[in-house]
Amino acid sequence: MSALDPFIAGLPKAELHVHHVGSASPRIVAQLAARHPDSPVPTDPEALADFFTFRDFAHFIEVYLSVVDLVRDAEDVRLLTYEIARDMARQNIRYAELTVTPFSSVRRGIPDVAFVEAIEDARKAAETELGVVLRWCFDIPGEAGLDAAEETARIACDLRPDGLVSFGLGGPEIGVPRPQFKPYFDRAIAAGLHSVPHAGETTGPETVWDALTALRAERIGHGTSAPQDPRLLAHLAEHRIPLEVCPTSNLATRAVTDIERHPIREMAAAGVLVTVNSDDPPMFGTDLNNEYAVAARLLELDARGVADLAKNAVEASFMDTAGKARLAAEIDAYTAEHTAAHAG
Ligand SMILES: [Zn+2]
User: Fold this and answer.
1) Residue ranges per domain, the chain?
2) What Enzyme Commission number does this protein have (predicted)?
């Protein structure tokens, strides 16, 4: 618990790197499991807390897949999406670009049109009822190969839901070179979507270069290894290409072995537009507020510094100009009020 925690909790925030199924909190998983009593996932809170206590990365994958298995029909998708927004509202997250993997659901038998309708219904309800603006990044699960890429590009470009703003690439990086996905990113970009692949999380800076050159990345998911290449950091800073940093996730996946030596310091010192995000928050035992607290400690920020970090996310987002101005003003007003209260 730090003195900044209450400030962070009340701070209006934007989240740019957070996954759909990976955001299913124990509360949401219990609701989904209750809809599917044949699932091995427990429904009572205590057993569920146990189930969510991660032993290692293999266990994380096991839990992740059992949650994936609970999302079987369009109503599950709607419930999951809306309830994620409810968890975001509690943290004062006003805007989120949620990474959604339609391929996983379509492969499991949910028709693409029904899937897209379900997330869009939840998006509209979340905005009017909870005050959370959701936008989508449809991502290719890299481990599923080029068929998944083709299917994801098709769903993104043909169905093109109103909330869709970007096109991504997730999954393992080792053995899954980024350039092979160029044709699918080309299509998505031609359809007006922004390019936001994961890169440089578990591989070196050359993967980030690949994402920039082959996939025309406008923002980089993670980019943890970027500081290994000063020329890359300078390029990211000069071209205002933001990094989506997820400190606790990096530690959980061992992309970073010691949180105290997280490269966020080098990124910020090089003038890169750094944003702080939660990735798969309940699965990594975190939330966005905690990620801000971790970043504030690592970067030795005061309240104004934390507010600037929140404004980085606004700037790096794909909101329209008016939306950005509104949220930035909200952050400024909150910060002014907080600092005045603490000065007096
Ligand atoms: Zn991610």
Assistant:
1) 5-343
2) 3.5.4.4
Q: Give the active site residues.
A: 201
Q: How much distance in Å is there from the Cα of 279 to the middle of ligand 1?
A: 5
Average pLDDT on 233-248 reads 98
C-alpha 302 – ligand 1 centre gap (Å): 27
Mean pLDDT in residue range 117-135: 98
**Is 0.90 surpassed by the pTM of this model?**
yes
Structural contact between residues 279 and 22, judged by C-beta atoms closer than 8 angstroms = yes
How far is the C-alpha of 113 from the C-alpha of 129, rounded, in Å?
24
Ion ligand 1 neighbours, Cβ < 5 Å: 279
- Convert 96-124 to b/e letters by CB count within 10 Å (16 or more is b): bbbbbbbbbbbeeebebeebbbbbbebbe
State the average pLDDT over residues 163-177.
94
Q: In CATH, which of 3.40.47.10, 3.20.20.140, 3.30.40.10, 2.120.10.70 is domain 5-343?
A: 3.20.20.140
Task: Give 85 Cα–ligand 1 centroid separation in angstroms.
Answer: 18
